[in-house]
Amino acid sequence: MMNAYRTTVATLALLVVGAMSAEAQERVHHFQVAVGGGWHSFAGGSAVKGGATISGEATYYLTPSLGVGLWTDYTFTETDGARFPPAALSFVDSTTFTIISQPLDIWQYGAHAKLQMGGSLGPFLLVGAGGYTVFLDPQQASGSELSTGLVFRLGAGLDLAVTDRAGFQIAVFDAFFPDWKPNRLYPVRDQFQNTRFPELNPDPDDLDDAVHNLGLTVAVTVVSGG
User: Fold this and answer.
1) Tens digit of pLDDT for each residue in 131-186?
2) Are 53 and 38 in contact (CB under 8 A)?
């Protein structure tokens, strides 16, 4: 773990040093495309564990400091089964309680406005809105069920120029789900709910219908030519 941390820090340091010696990217009236990945951490009240993310973004610059575009990311994760009542499996003379999690994928997508500062490091702020789609496990959800809702996105980062057309991007963001409703993720059928020992059930107030989820991405950027 420590070696991985040191490697990550050293890599980011090299990117910053390289960017400081490079020219700023020429973006006005061009598209900047960013493709990469990272990690998405979901709020505890969402009942979703953190997971790896792949991301993409396309921004058209109207001026050197203002761009508009589209973004998307796809996260591979699973539910936090400990946030829900354990499944009660009854046998002839005993009852077994089991915490059940299920894999799920979360796809986010939307439009954004990007405020960009100049220079080879290119600090930026990003404000966006769109939607999310949750793909539940078809075996536990009795079919390929979907769950959708709104997402509002606020981010900040650096566009590190390597040349006037290529570079790297480091970004952090907060994805706010105002209508999450985590009970939609509960994979256990009514006949398996624990009613015999309710003291084993977690407090339902620990789940939140509106959650803030934090993420970190690193991407390669390319500016269209012409």
Assistant:
1) 999 988 766 665 555 689 999 999 999 999 888 889 999 999 999 999 998 878 87
2) yes
- How far, in Å, CA of 42 to CA of 182, rounded? 12
Coil, strand or helix at 178: coil
Residues 6+ apart with CB under 8 A from 87: 97, 98, 99, 100, 188, 192, 193, 194
Closest among 72, 58, 71 to 27, alpha carbons compared: 58
Strand-strand pairing, 51-63 and 66-78: antiparallel
Distance CA 59, CA 31 (A): 5
CA nearest neighbour of 27 among 156, 138, 124: 124
Supply φ then ψ for residue 6, to 5 degrees: -65, -40
Tell me how far apart the alpha carbons of residues 176 and 150 are, in angstroms, rounded to a whole number. 8
Q: Which residue type sits at 181?
A: K
**How do residues 11-54 score in pLDDT, each as one tens digit?**
444 444 444 444 556 678 899 999 999 999 999 899 999 999 99
pTM for this entry: 0.80
- Taking the C-alpha atoms of residue 87 and residue 188, their distance in angstroms, rounded to an integer, is 6
